[in-house]
Amino acid sequence: MLADVDPAEFRSKGWDPSDRPVRRAMHFFDENRRVQMQVRALRNDNFAAFWNYVNESGNASWELLQNITPLGATAHQEMALTLALCRKLLGGEGAVRVHGGGFAGTVLAFVPSGKFAQFRADVASVLGDDCCHELRITG
After folding, report:
1. C-alpha dihedral over 138, 88, 48, 119, to 10 degrees?
2. CB within 8 Å of 125: residues ≥ 6 apart
3. Is the confidence at residue 104, as pLDDT, over 70?
């Protein structure tokens, strides 16, 4: 079980990062650290830090898990397009990441208050009218 492995010990072994299982393990260790940082940021009402960790997580998911584009695919790049579009529309605000099953998952975008209507319209202009849905979480 990877959860039983010390991350520092794992890194000291000199694993070849070109091996996909090694990259996935690297993501696992870093993601566990990021989750702790996300929780701390939310507890401190620091949404900028939270969004930063969400973006880091999404980038690592793409780069290390490689769950955005199916292996060898040149045609099926919908998830990559959607992530790039959302990043551009957010303009450095909020956060965006793949959520769910990667190739068959969805994009989760944290859109700053008051900017969702324009974000949704811009997403719809590229991806279609029923591709963006607002979710509100209340406590």
Report:
1. -30
2. none
3. no
